[in-house]
Structure formats: C-alpha cells, structure tokens
Amino acid sequence: MSNLSRSARKVQQALDRFGLSFDVVELPASTRTAADAAAAIGTATPQIAKSLVFRAVESGDPVLVIASGGNRVNENTVGDHLGQPIRKADADFVRQATGFAIGGVPPVGHSREPMVFIDADLLAFDRIWAAAGTPNAVFSLTPQELLRITGGNVVPIQ
Questions:
Q1: Would you say 105 and 98 are in contact if contact means Cβ atoms under 8 Å apart?
Q2: Whole-angstrom Cα distance, residue 35 to residue 133?
Q3: Are the CB atoms for 92 and 98 separated by under 8 Å?
Q4: Is the pLDDT of residue 126 over 60?
Q5: If you average pLDDT over residues 4-15, what whole number do you get?
Q6: d(CA 30, CA 15)
Q7: Can you tell me the distance from the alpha carbon of 61 to that of 49, in angstroms, rounded to the nearest whole number?
Q8: Cα–chain-centroid distance for residue 119?
Q9: Burial zone of 39 (CB within 10 Å; 0-12 exposed, 13-18 middle, 19+ buried)
Q10: Using CA of residue 99, residue 42, residue 127, residue 24, what is the dihedral sign?
Q11: Is the dihedral of CA 42, 103, 8, 61 positive or negative?
Q12: Whole-angstrom distance, CA of residue 69 vs CA of residue 25
C-alpha cells in the first residue's frame, strides 16, 4: 500500500475497515471516465461503477449516485426516491463533501457521509470496478459488497 498515492491510500484504508479483501490499484492509463476505466481495465463500460455526486436542493446534503458506466442519471427519478430534488454538484462541493476530486470519487471514505443510491443495473454483474480516489486508481468488488460497504439504496436511475 505504501506505493499508492495519498488519495488512493486513503481509499484503501477506508476499504480495509470493512474486513473484506479489496486491493486498490493505480493504472498507468486514466480511469477518469467510465469509458476510459473500461479500456484501461479491459472490461465492459457497464461494469464500471461511476460515483456521481449531487446536492440535495432543500437540505444541501451530498447525494452519491453509483451508476453503471453506460447509464445517465435521471435527476428527477433519484430526487423522487430521496424525497427532494437533486442537482449536479460543482467541483468545489464535490471536493468539500467527499475529500476527492471529480474523476476519482470512490464509493466510500468521504469527508461527509452522503445518502447513497445504487443503480439497479449494476446488480446484473458478477464483478464491478469503482474509482479509488484518483483519476487512475480503481478497485474491484461484487455488487453485494458495494451494497454492504455503502449502505446504499438500489434504485432505477434512468
């Protein structure tokens, strides 16, 4: 773990607290977008669990939507599940709420615990890949492990 960058190490430490065997890896290629990540890993884009941060309009709380790589988030649908509208968060809010920059936001280890919604489409896969704190760090897990470590609610997001 000592060879990981500071942000990736922070994610590895957060993952270690769950008592499961997750290994953060930093790749030479960018994993900033779902398509980039899929190409760098050698998997299909839908198997990328992209972490997108939104801001609840009324409360101002962070909302994390973990979406299958090829899917777009319907803000109205997720807002209905939350019980208030959401809007895409700007880069400053993302960094303040999560401790990570856009393009490397992991599903865990955030500065503030967000409400988490997980794309139901991710449950179709045996293994998925998630960002691990930097634009080239990732880790692999099962959808069930994702549910466990995030406490997320599974919903259709489109």
A1: yes
A2: 17
A3: no
A4: yes
A5: 95
A6: 22
A7: 21
A8: 11
A9: middle
A10: negative
A11: negative
A12: 19
User: What is the spatial distance between Cα 74 and Cα 110, in angstroms, rounded to a whole number?
Assistant: 23
Q: How far apart are the first and last CA of the chain?
A: 37
- pLDDT bucket at 152, cuts 50 / 70 / 90: very high
Hunting for tokens 């190490």 — which residue is that? Answer: 9
Tokens of 147: 């549910």
**One-letter amino acid for residue 81 of the chain:** H
CB-based contact 84:135 (threshold 8 Å): no
Helix (H, G, I), strand (E, B) or coil at 65: strand
- 96: Cα separation from own chain's centroid: 16
Average pLDDT for 45-63: 98
CA atoms within 13 A on the CB side of 7: 21
Mean pLDDT within 20-38: 92
Residue with tokens 């045996």: 126
- Predicted TM-score (pTM) of the model is 0.95
Residues contacting 96, CB < 8 A, separation 6+? 111, 112
CA distance 87 to 76: 9
Largest CA distance in the chain: 43
Check residue 2 and give its pLDDT.
62
The 8-class DSSP code of residue 20 comes to S
